[in-house]
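Re: beginner question about structure tokens

> Can someone show what the tokenized structure looks like for a real chain? I only ever see the sequence side.

Sure, here's an example I had lying around. Input first:
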Amino acid sequence: MAGQERFDIVIAGGGVMGASAAYWLTRTPGFAGRVAVIERDPGHARSSTALSVASIRLQFSNAVNVQISRFGMEFIENAHDYIGLEGDIQSLDLQANGYLFLAGTAEQAATMRENRAVQVRHGARTELLQPSEVSARFPFLDCHDVMLGAFGPGEGWFDNMGLLNGLRRAAQARGAIFLADEVIGLDRADGRVSAARLASGARLPCGWLVNAAGTRARSLARMAGLDIPVEPRKRTVFLIDAPNVQARSAPLLVDHTGFYLRPEGKHWLCATVPEHDPPVDVDDFEPRHEEFEASIWPRLFARAPGFDAVKVLRFWAGHYAFNRLDANAIVGPHPDVANFIFCNGFSGHGLQQAPAMGRAVAEWIVTGGYRSLDLSPLGVERVIEGRPFLEKAVV
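And the corresponding structure tokens:
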């Protein structure tokens, strides 16, 4: 590739957000431009996409997040229709066992009721369950300290890399170029990004720059003289064997004591939010192996006595691209650099939000605004003003 080859759109980051933006751009009526996606880790060995537990739910507290994931669910359920032959995807194997949130205090139960009202208003089918109903439906659980449960039928988990690879192949089939490289600098002229400079030495003049850089989003923003409060937060996931509990039909459990658990074949995946949760280096993927015995297993055994015999089979660490302002996405243009588009800060919810976010980025670039779903509450203006748009249901 020539060192000065021009692209209409340069997308920095080829994970699921960058791939989704490229996919939607190549399908948006009225757009016939050239798209380049730059990815430093084309094998995605350390991407948030690959290291996630690949789940989707509509149980959020903000209407916009419910709507975002509702479209994500539609896309995942109908992946063949959306990605089709170009993406070489027949199905994303959604395991729709449901999500089960447990509340342990009156305050948590009240929030759960408030959240459910928002969810149902925007198309979710969330059910509120009394402790006896939780026990009857999921008899492996001990509900002695549960005040209320919220169950989302149809929610579940799916093939994360299938989604990423399908979006990428479908985008490539319509002309998007994916480059194994890294953006190391941005040139600005007349209040706009004029070019992206790559580690390979290439310089790519561009009409738009999309920040889909995940945990490196803040570094990329600073190359344009901008800033966002997005930082890597480490999450260690454990794959465990628990032969005394049947995994097949269990939901994804989010326990009020501070852990989550879901089936993975005949085994289980579990994790916790550590009490001490500082930002970490973008290259720090050392698992916190002590979290299982110190934090997860005592709570898990208290909730489900069948987890008395447990063996850790494997564990790994992934990163959330965490927005410390409000744990919500930042999407759209910056008022001072109008052709710099954010698609960042998903705080653990990016995979399920990717279909809607990529569509939104494409709509903004091609038409100058959002058409399918108004994501203006997630704009960077609230970050500049220090005005949180809080999401209560962060896992």
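Each token stands for a local structural state, so reading them left to right follows the chain. The first helix runs from residue 16 to 25.
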